[in-house]
Amino acid sequence: MTEIDQINDRILQELSRDGRLSNTALAERVGLSASACLRRVQDLERRGIITGYRATLDRTALGSGFLAYITVGLSSHTKASQEAFERAISRAPQVRECHNITGAVEYLLRVEVADLAAYKLFHTDILGTLPQVSAITSYVVMGSPKDERA
Q1: pLDDT tens digits for 99-121?
Q2: 38 shares its domain with 71
Q3: Segments forming the whole domain that contains residue 16
Q4: 99: helix, coil or strand?
Q5: Which helix (H) or strand (E) holds 107?
Q6: Under a CB-based contact definition with an 8 Å cutoff, are residues 75 and 133 in contact?
Q7: With 0-12 CB in 10 A as exposed, 13-18 as middle and 19+ as buried, what is 12?
Q8: Is 35 exposed, middle or buried (0-12, 13-18, 19+ CB in 10 A)?
């Protein structure tokens, strides 16, 4: 595990809040010169701690404001079954995240679509047709008072 000092931790916090922050503004916020700050950011990138920068999107404005989390249980617990499921899910643009988890089911999906009708179509025509799937439980998001995904 990589050690992170207090200054690097503050750099990471600031960039997590605003990845478009200029190096000069970042340096001011963490109390470094611009050149020292840039060296630290480049080192964090080189070490793979910072793996990229993203834009946070308003999914409702883009027409995909219906959000649901889905747990998926597989009928077979083989590697081949998991790989086939993961390949199928990787082709579904509605699935924004797919996590292989522990517990009573194998997967947790985050699905974003336009509305309930689009969700039903995904649930029935995509997820429901996969031969590996034996159980589906949907959790519709009504609001997100805290969401720190970058």
Answers
A1: 999 999 999 999 999 999 999 99
A2: no
A3: 6-46
A4: strand
A5: strand 107-113
A6: yes
A7: middle
A8: exposed
User: What pLDDT is attached to residue 150?
Assistant: 59
Write out pLDDT tens, residues 64-101. Answer: 899 999 999 999 999 999 999 999 999 999 999 999 99
| CB-CB contact of 85 with 107 (8 Å) | yes
Q: Is residue 15 part of a domain?
A: yes
Residues 6 or more apart in contact with residue 123 via CB below 8 angstroms: 70, 136, 138
**Overall number of domains in the chain:** 2
What token pair was written down for 123?
């649930």
Query: What percent of the chain stands above pLDDT 90?
Result: 85
pLDDT digits (tens, 9 = 90+) for 52-65: 998 888 888 988 89
Strand partners, 110: 69, 97
How far does CA 35 lie from the centroid of its chain? 32
Residues 134 and 77 in one domain: yes
Q: Quick one: which H or E segment has residue 20?
A: none
